[in-house]
Amino acid sequence: MAKALTNFSIRHPWWVIGIASVITVFFAVQFLNMKIDTDPENMLAEDEPVRLFEHQTKDEFGLADFIAVGVVHEAGAFTPETLNRLYNITAEIQDIEGVVVDDIMAPSTVDDIKQGEGGTLVVAPLMESEITTQEEADYIRSRINANPIFRGKLAGEDGKAVAIMVPIESKDMSHRIAGEIRQIIDKYKGDEEYHIAGLPLAEDSFGAEMFVQMAYSAPAAMLIIFLLLLMFFRNLRIVLAPMVVAMMSTIWAMGLLILTGNTVHIMSSMIPIFLIPIAVLNSIHIISEFHDHYKRYKHKDATIRHSIGELFMPMLFTSLTTIAGFLSLALTPIPPVQVFGIFVAFGVLVAWFLSLTLNPAIGMLIPDKTLRDFGASDDEHGLLARIMHGFRSFSFNWSKTIIYGSAALAVVAAVGLSLIVVNDNPVKWFKQSHPIRIADAAMNRHLAGTYLNYLVFESPDDDAMKNPAMVRYIESMQRELAVDENVGSTTGLPDIVKKVRYELYGGDSTKASLPESQDEIAQMLFLFEMSGGDPDDLFKFVTSSYNKANLWVVMKNGDNMSVSRVVERAEQYMANHQLPSGVEAEWAGLPYINIEWQRQMVTGMRSSLLGSYVTVLIMMVFLFRSLRWGLISMLPLTLTIMAIYAFLGYVGKPYDMPVAVLSSLTLGLSIDFAIHYIERLRMIHRRTHDFQQSFHEIFEGTGRAIGRNVLVIAIGFVPMLFSSLVPYITVGSFFLAIMIVSGLVTMLLLPAITRQFHGALLRLQARSKSAAVAEPQPSGN
Prior knowledge:
alpha+beta, 63% helix, disordered C terminus
């Protein structure tokens, strides 16, 4: 197969380039039909129960996701000037397309429950028009603080913050609507701080900014990789080939993704970033081999045939192991991760095929005069060669120390792995200096919180939620949840009943309690409905048939760990305190959905990684026809994964969505160097039958090729470290860490092991050179 592909590419270079170009254009055209999906909710399948219940809850209680607009003034936000600005801002927000106008919560839109003339109950707007006096501002503040429905949500208890809760028709409108709100704020703002926060905004903005980051990160990475290759090989036409392979592989993969009807989700948008480094690896090995042997063969076709012949099997298996690693993602229960894994695997397959065909084809079209001095430069004494010689001497002279040190590193890493915490929060996908992070911190410092979950109680019987035992149960659940420091406030049916009763009795605080009879509870709720307010306000907490009640749980922190702790507290409470007969409880809300898809992702990725690890081990044993070599080849991969993830554990970096996905990349890249090292060492040894010579040679051509790959990929993605999005920084850091750690382990630990155990590992050498027990120092340093 290798010969057939190579011969065809050498004899028909224009055919190869032409066919590849036509296919590339075909897939590029598919980009016109690209559909973007930035909703993290789609991390779960459409029929996932938690997702269906989320939609059901929104429909039954008339709920919408919301954007939180906060105004903070350290000198006090309740002044006529600030409230009037909010009044005008709110009025203009109502004109924004996609805002659910009737459900906006702001001082000028909410209804206040109070006693009217003759002891009647009146529900009237809290702030009907602009105000002129401080007394009016203080009155609005006092009414908000006296109302459990508004307290903490519309204003902080310290009086330094006021909020507008802007419900939106769809989460994917959040970024646009927030932009229009900022324009309105610019028209009216004074000396207050204005913030816009909310989980839907964070998720939608991340999707929007991620594509912007992709637009310059991928080209920047390709440019740096190109410049590094040019520095190494000093021939513009030669180094164009890897870039063409990387570009075409990416276009084919993304084009097929779009052609098959898949949307470009947040995960899919990362495919180019993952494919580019993988796609150039094989090409760098081919060019390195070509570079090292061209001066000997002096003929392009002969040198190409030699290079492909030497590298075909290592490249085949490095590509297959990478494909296996990414295909394993198809076993996870997260649809976008499945799509991501399948199409990255397809891209790797394409990159392997194009590396074998396009590199020779492009090479054959390069004029001989251009290659006259190619490979003539003395790389054997260059900086990279001197580094490799240093590794050779060190691994030879300190082999036992390296082996023992690696074992100690594994123990330390094992401890670090136990420290890893699983956590995620889409708001923290932005850097701390990002406006969304700043807004999140400011608003959750002054208000009850910007993360909202719903605990829904359901009974098969109508009017069950009017039952005093049921209402008291919800009230006791509120008290239990309020103990958790993450819960800023809870609002439910008991608050409405107590508020109506309190106002009905003229503000008598002793009456702000739950009635003992179902009839009185029903009366309080009826009065609320009939008092002139919007009945829909009531039905956000209870269904019209009163068989379901919705407890709003507002939280200050959207970290999955913090949200999970609140959920577990409620579940523990229900386990210890039995719900009324026939009643069941279930959670809804975006923070709850996030912890569910993260749970599925973590368990799915863990199974996927373990499965692909075993698969790669089997492939290595098959490739090397040796269990020993198979196990040794897994060392760089194993130590790299352990070292990197242990580092996360020690520094406290959570195991989140980007980190989970990167485990497959680690598996795919870390095995690459080991395959090339072992396969080439065995090939050299079969030729020389001399361990000393084999050990010496492996650090020359192969060593320099590995070194080039390490430098190209590690440095090529440094621009990502300067991104405003944390996942991009994580990806860039991982590329750097994977390359450095796996490169060091490959060029230090594997040589140390072969130095110590070459007699058993290279039996032919052991038999033929049995007299060479006392090995001399390697030469060439």
